[in-house]
Amino acid sequence: MEETLSLQELLKTMKKRFLLIISTFFLAVTIAGGVSYFFLTPIYEASTQILISQKESERDQFMAQDVQANLQLVNTYSVIIKSPVILSKVVDNLKLNTSLELLNENIKVSSEQNSQVINVSVQDPDLEKAIDIANTTAEVFQEEIPKLMNVDNVKILSPAVNTKNVKSVKPNPILNMAIAAIIGLMLGIGMAFLIEFFDHSIKTEQDVDEFLGLPLLGIVSPITQKKLKKNKRV
């Protein structure tokens, strides 16, 4: 019985403060959409692929061994790509006005499971700059890896290119608005219950019994201006 009563009170409060809840909901969505579309800087992403392979002359004889060894080297190569040895040359070649730490944060290196292909992705507000950084990083890595590891098994499989109608990867206005909608709805409901919890003013005859515990002896009907004028004439 108490659970049913609590549910009824819950629905009653939400219905009573519906305007507040719906206003908070739309306000949150509007703010999130406005900030996402007009204030946040679009971030673009460019990617290049690097293939870890073996020498052509050794391919038939040591195929299985080389593939397994190359798979084990993928993780090592992923670390080397983002190392200062590589990134410092990328900064120098492109004359970038950025620190190695910031450049490192904007570069993401990944690989598929049991794959000899390494993906190098770069994010930047300037798409052309992101493309240049991705391609230069792959080229510098290809040049430096024989000196660092005494191997020559790196090939650029797919360089980054500029295609038409490239969409930004950040921000995601739809996702931001969806999150804001949930937060706005929760905030509106929370505010409604807080107001209801701290509001002890007596507005109806039911409130007299609920808050004061006194019996209701009578009700004074509101007197309108029309009734007041009518009474004066009489």
Automatic annotation (TrEMBL):
Residues 3-94 form the Polysaccharide chain length determinant N-terminal domain. The chain crosses the membrane at residues 18-40, 174-195. Keywords: Cell membrane, Membrane, Transmembrane, Transmembrane helix. It comes from the Bacteria. InterPro entries: Bact_polysacc_biosynth/exp (IPR050445), GNVR (IPR032807), LPS_length_determ_N (IPR003856). It is a multi-pass membrane protein. Residues 142-194 form the Tyrosine-protein kinase G-rich domain. Its main location: membrane. It is found in: Cell membrane. Belongs to the CpsC/CapA family. This is Capsular biosynthesis protein.
